[in-house]
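Translate structure to sequence.
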């Protein structure tokens, strides 16, 4: 497209020079003023042609830039979705890690197991994962029952390394749907674990 316009501009300039020379030759004498006017006409034609070409080239470049920006925005959206998925998977992994660690510690170190279940519950509440939160609370209740039975004489407990850790509800989860759904159960559970210490 640019080449066509440049060629057309060049041909129009040649035509303007030819017309100027033709007008000057019809007067039978070479007039300096008509030659200067012809050159001014050629220059004006060139300037207008160049500005038209620049405008069209700028428009074409803007279209290319706009297309690239649209592609980049699509890629950014995809990256944002991937980032969200990765963060979600990381939270799920963290929940599973603490839950599994609580299962491993449950028989030998029940206070440590309770602490791990509590961490898993907090992470589940942050992620709005009601299924995992329910499972963590259920396991934590079993640990509290086991601690209570052991304290009543069924067996000895190891020193509660995690027993000195204050189990409080973080402010970040107090407004989450998971915490709201289980708030009574959580409050009772925290009261019971504190009574065993």
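Result:
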């Amino acid at each position: 497209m640019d080449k066509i316009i440049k060629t057309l501009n060049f041909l129009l300039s040649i035509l303007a020079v030819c017309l100027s020379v033709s007008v000057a030759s019809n007067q039978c004498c070479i007039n300096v003023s008509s030659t200067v006017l012809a050159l001014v006409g050629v220059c004006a034609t060139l300037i207008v042609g160049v500005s038209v070409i620049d405008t069209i080239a700028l428009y074409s470049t803007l279209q290319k830039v706009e297309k690239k920006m649209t592609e980049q925005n699509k890629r950014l959206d995809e990256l944002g979705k991937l980032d969200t998925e990765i963060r979600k998977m990381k939270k799920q992994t963290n929940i599973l890690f603490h839950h599994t660690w609580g299962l491993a510690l449950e028989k030998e170190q029940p206070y440590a197991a309770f602490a791990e279940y509590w961490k898993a519950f907090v992470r589940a509440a942050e992620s709005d994962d009601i299924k995992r939160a329910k499972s963590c609370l259920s396991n934590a209740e079993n640990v509290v029952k086991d601690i209570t039975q052991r304290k009543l004489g069924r067996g000895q407990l190891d020193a509660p390394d995690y027993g000195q850790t204050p189990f409080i509800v973080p402010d970040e989860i107090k407004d989450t749907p998971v915490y709201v759904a289980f708030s009574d159960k959580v409050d009772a559970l925290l009261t019971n674990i504190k009574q065993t210490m």
